[in-house]
Amino acid sequence: MISEKMRPLVENNSAIRAMFEEGKKLAALYGRENVYDFSLGNPNVPAPSAVNKAILDIVTEEETTMVHGYMSNAGYEDVRDAIAQSLNRRFGTHFRLENILMTVGAASGMNVILKTILNPGDEVIVFAPYFMEYGSYVRNYDGVLSVVPPDTETFQPDLTEFERRITEKTKAVIINTPNNPTGVIYSSETLEKLSEIMRGKEKEYGKSIVLISDEPYRELAYDGAEVPYVTPFYHNTMVCYSYSKSLSLPGERIGYLVIPDEVDDFQAVAAAAAIANRVLGCVNAPSLMQRVIMRCVDEQVNVDAYNQNRELLYGRLKEYGFTCIKPQGAFYLFMKAPVDDKEFCQFCKEHLVLLVPGSSFACPGYVRIAYCVSYDQILRSLPAFEAIAKAYGLGGNKEGDA
Amino acid sequence: MISEKMRPLVENNSAIRAMFEEGKKLAALYGRENVYDFSLGNPNVPAPSAVNKAILDIVTEEETTMVHGYMSNAGYEDVRDAIAQSLNRRFGTHFRLENILMTVGAASGMNVILKTILNPGDEVIVFAPYFMEYGSYVRNYDGVLSVVPPDTETFQPDLTEFERRITEKTKAVIINTPNNPTGVIYSSETLEKLSEIMRGKEKEYGKSIVLISDEPYRELAYDGAEVPYVTPFYHNTMVCYSYSKSLSLPGERIGYLVIPDEVDDFQAVAAAAAIANRVLGCVNAPSLMQRVIMRCVDEQVNVDAYNQNRELLYGRLKEYGFTCIKPQGAFYLFMKAPVDDKEFCQFCKEHLVLLVPGSSFACPGYVRIAYCVSYDQILRSLPAFEAIAKAYGLGGNKEGDA
């Protein structure tokens, strides 16, 4: 019954599902509060109170058939305009409502872009470590993923290798900053160099190469770190945004695409993207949530809560002797595994600590710790992390640990 | 920039878009209330008051990170269970939550099924007239649409031609009852015959053939007409349902799939469908709306309002001399065009009446009138319909009309 394309996804999925089921079993055996689940990117910080207030106000103030009704496949015009104006205020851009297309989250936005531009065999470049789902999105449209190996010193993109990988078949490049799973942010200098390379290759091959910027973590940056807006760097940039993390609404599936005027064939691309949104079956982004965004366009979650988690976890892991870079943004910490990452995750699970192996992000030898959990869960998990470190003989430079 | 697959969609879309823009122009010129737009299936009857009450209650009573958070890709288990129980109560079925997968409306549900089962070149049979988007959904997965020509006497499926069209490449059959655009309902007898043919062909070719029942209009049936539940007739049936019409929530994108235990390879199909829901970018159906369905599972819109529209419009159109069958369900009336359907739509537009040509449903010579508008709009439009009838010399059997 299952299509050829879905078969490997089902087989591959069962391993993850088995892990998930094991986690549930552990929780049943030892009690939920004694299992330290750092595997999922499901925000623990609640949506700002303005979100629920907006829902209540909309339901009582706005006209019901409009609130729950169809609108243009691209979304309500007033919502798109509000988002364009907000971006312009914050980043000095010059977007109009025609540059904004409301989507069922960023994942759907990525599918919309890839359906719009990919022909079978087109190559899409990603930088390891990368969010594994990108591969599925690209293969949905018979594209081919081309992976730039990780620079495990800095986890910044290896631009020399990147330039080498661009071929005449390259149609798109995906970046994700702040990054899942590393938490690094690409600097203006990095974006400038990356753009220069892409401009050069566009000229060399006489074709358009699209830069897809997947930005669900844009608002989660720490220590005043700047997350440069990408569209001014490179003309063929399209942005996938989601409110899943910035407003803690991952289940609501609300986000948008930015397709700037500067994109080649802008009119056709914008029209095709709206149609792709429809024929992929989304039709439009959920209507009530669009109305909510209209009223909450400049709101954001309490980033301090994530920062407290980051400081506590990073500080203690270093203290216990683990190796990791300090995340600048997002809510993930990418830590070196003292042994094979899958073996390490297995060992951690025995200590009731659930992590995701770096292999799942094309970067073996590391593990991802999602710290979008309660501060209390991190506190309670620390003895387990310490015991794990000791078991591997880490923390040798402190008294009596080795 | 645009992919080969999207190009015809963009070109084809521009004609519809031009018509839509023309409608807006007409409204600006003559006033919105003097333009009679029957082109769209956007419900005018508001959602039951229980829906907005449920939203208010959920936001104040349920835990925010749960209401707006991620859940399983298949949806909240309690919501899926509530739907299964409701179906069992109403149709004597035996579904469990594992048979229900929450989707971003029925359009997305169709995409999920087709992605799950189609290999390139697989044929999918539809009965004309049919909702044009089916073709796009099938082509998304490189399937090939096979169209059974319409029986314009009854608009019931032509089962002789259907049997002839099933080949060893046939993977699925799509039915839509109550039907868009004709309003007909398939009887138990029809479903039984159709199922018999499919069982025979499954045996003949030694393969599974899936019956996809697209049911957004299930709850809209008039004069006590029965809409038989399809799964008991045929083992490989999957149902695409949406609350767009039954609760007037088309913008919210909330619906579900039913994948019964009897489907071949049930476990694999159900697992693959949940993954397809994720990798197509939906991830899950909008979370707050899932919670709303939990509380409104047995609610429905005021069907009487649509029935009043139906009676008024059908009665008058017949009186003016038009030819049409009386719709048994849904909120469309499929009327014979006295001349070429596109030419007729053009003429109607000059009388400020906006209709969709039957050609857009693979059934030229007819027009679709969406009567999900206000009763008042229908009343106001009657002189225009009468004038149009007179212009074509219809209604000849009444005094002095010919």
TrEMBL record, chains A, B:
Transmembrane stretches, start-end: none
Keywords: Aminotransferase, Transferase
Domain Aminotransferase class I/classII large: 35-377
EC number assigned by the record: 2.6.1.-
Highest taxon listed in the record's lineage: Bacteria
Cofactor: pyridoxal 5'-phosphate
GO molecular function: transaminase activity
Protein family per UniProt: Belongs to the class-I pyridoxal-phosphate-dependent aminotransferase family.
Protein name as it appears in the record: Aminotransferase
Source species: Lacrimispora xylanolytica
